[in-house]
Each structure stands twice: as C-alpha cells, then as structure tokens.
Amino acid sequence: MELELLDWKRRIAELYARVRAAADPVDAWRDWRETRDELFARHPQSPLDAEARAAFRGLTYFDYDPAARVLAAVEPTEPAALEVPMSRGETPSFIRFGRARFELGGAEHALGLYWLEGYGGGVYLPVADATSGDTTYGAGRYVLDTVKGADLGEQDGLLVLDFNFAYNPSCAYDPRWACPLAPPENRLAIPIRAGERF
C-alpha cells in the first residue's frame, strides 16, 4: 500500500512538472485532465473505491477559461496558527504565512496561504466560491497543495493560480479520506466557473 501511494505521488508530481513546462496552458490542461482520469480509473490509490472505479467514465470540468488563469502577488503576513476543519471532524494545525493577492472578474481578491504543520509539511491553498455546493464541491476545491505535488509554479516572481486546475479533495469521492476544507477566509463571493465540477 505504501509503495502504491508513493507511485501515485510520483505520477502527480510528474504530471504537474509537465504542466509547468508546457508552452500552451490549454494543452497542459488537457494532459492534466486525461492523466487524472487515467489515475482515477485504474490506480489502486484512486480516491474512488473499486466499485466506483468500475463505473467511472471521467471527471467533469468547466470549459477552459483563459481569464481564470491569474498571477498572484504573495504578501507575507504575521504567522498565525489556524485550526482548519477536516471532512471527518479533525482539526489539524496550519500556519497562515501569507496571502495571495490577485485580480479576477474585475475585482481584487486575497486568499490565505497555509503551511501544513503535519502530514509532511507543505504549502496549501484551498478555495470555495459561489459555485461551491451548486456545481462544485460544497467544501471547496484545491488550487495549490505541494504535499500532493499540485503546484503550477511561478511566473515573473508571481504565483500562478490557474483555477482551471482547481480540483476536488479526495473526500468528495469517498468519506474514507480525511481532507482539510476551505476556511472562511478563503471563501470568495464570486463564482469561479473553471476547474473540476461536482
């Protein structure tokens, strides 16, 4: 089982390396979708159980929207410990170390950037928006999660946040997974019609 998880993480890391290296974001997004579908359908560490994998026909997404790809300035903040609720009730410790500031839909927004204290550490950026609980997973989606290899990199010293690559946490597919949820400060009032649907 541990080697299966290691293989999953390697494949995700390789996928995001290809995405970062791609010249065309739309081609990168297509590769990302196809690879994720393949992993969900066949990999033993898929968030889907065996029965769901057998019936799986692919994840659903909004169409690619170039306007949903933004560059964010990272604004350091005083480190603040936060307990972020998880899908199964746990509350692990996170440290908010900054905010990602960007423009989307004609307005400026800021989302908290978190360091995961446990679970190997890593940078984490969840988001919920006006589509959450309607056309996307109610507890939010992930845009950046370096523990899982989900990182679109940077451009010109700014963090790449491409909401076309926003994806549902594993707990959206099976309650056996425990997932940190988007905290209130990372809930946007606007709809982000990009990325994975639910």
Can you characterise this structure?
The chain has 198 residues and is of the alpha+beta class. The chain has one domain (2-186). 22% of the residues lie in helices and 27% in strands. It contains 3 helices and 7 strands, in the order αααβββββββ. The protein has helices spanning 2-21, 25-42, 50-55; strands spanning 69-83, 93-104, 107-116, 123-127, 141-145, 154-155, 158-162. A 7-stranded antiparallel sheet has the order 5-4-3-2-1-7-6, with no helix packed on it. β3 and β4 form a beta hairpin. α1 runs antiparallel to α2. The chain is globular, with a radius of gyration of 16 Å. 32% of the residues are buried. The model has no long low-confidence stretch (mean pLDDT 94).
Attribute tags:
single chain, about 200 residues, alpha+beta, about 25% strand, globular
Strand and helix layout:
Blueprint: H1 2-21, H2 25-42, H3 50-55, E1 69-83, E2 93-104, E3 107-116, E4 123-127, E5 141-145, E6 154-155, E7 158-162
Antiparallel strand pairs: 1-2, 1-7, 2-3, 3-4, 4-5, 6-7
Helix pairs in contact: 1-2
Overall mean pLDDT stands at 94
Helix fraction by DSSP (H/I, runs of at least 4):
10-25%
- Radius of gyration using CA atoms only: 16 Å
C-alpha geometry = globular
Query: What is the H/E order?
Result: HHHEEEEEEE
Write a compact overview of the structure shown.
This protein has 198 residues and is an alpha+beta fold. It is 22% helix and 27% strand. The chain has helices at residues 2-21, 25-42, 50-55; strands spanning 69-83, 93-104, 107-116, 123-127, 141-145, 154-155, 158-162.
